[in-house]
Design brief:
mainly beta, six-stranded antiparallel beta barrel, 13 strands
Length: about 200
């Protein structure tokens, strides 16, 4: 489990495609301070397992389903990625409960800069729109964010907006995401559990 508070931005240095998977090698600093084989690190919001560490670079295996369901399927060497270690029992929950299980891939529709922040509008898969509410939480590329606006129910393409403060723009990859770029989305897991429980009651 994670909190959506990015610890550092790393660099994907090697991508090795295999028949039904891919091996990624990522250069990092902070997330490797106390890392052990088998630990979990979120990469752009995707929970991955550390398989080796050497000279500031850690490796992980990504199965075909994860490549298909997240933006990692198109990741290339040289890409910058958001990194976060899994929480511990004494970790501050600075963001919200994040599983590292991507629900879908969204697309950056627009960026509107203001004096002290930037509003980013993101299109999301129609099946996820019901889980996204104004002032609720959502994870975008592993970053825990508060939804500042949502589309009307009548809009043909669902979207939501988030307002990014200077720290988020500076310390995560979201500052460099351009219009048309894909982003990994994880909706609030509590909303999904509530929906499932209500379905069972009906």
């Amino acid at each position: 489990m994670f909190t959506g508070i990015v610890e550092e931005v790393g660099t994907l240095v090697v991508r090795e495609d295999q028949a039904d998977a891919a091996r990624l090698e990522i250069r990092a600093n902070r997330v490797l301070e106390d890392v052990a084989l088998g630990d979990s690190i979120a990469v752009d919001g995707v929970c991955l397992t550390v398989t080796s560490v050497r000279d500031g670079v850690w490796s992980t295996d990504v199965m075909a389903e994860t490549l298909r369901r997240s933006s990692l399927g198109k990741a290339e060497a040289g890409n910058r990625v958001n990194l976060e270690r899994a929480v511990t029992p004494n970790t501050r929950l600075g963001g919200h409960i994040v599983q590292g299980h991507v629900d879908g891939v969204g697309t950056v529709l627009a960026r509107t800069p203001a004096e002290h922040w930037e509003v980013v509008r993101i299109e999301l898969p129609a099946g996820l729109a019901r889980y996204v509410v104004e002032k609720g939480s959502i994870t975008v590329d592993g970053v825990s964010l508060t939804v500042s606006a949502v589309c009307a129910a009548t809009d043909p393409e669902p979207w939501f907006e988030v307002s990014l403060i200077p720290t988020t723009l500076r310390e995560t990859t979201l500052g460099a995401r351009a219009t048309g770029d894909p982003v990994n989305l994880e909706v609030d897991v509590i909303a999904k559990h509530v929906e499932r429980l209500l379905e069972a009651r009906r």
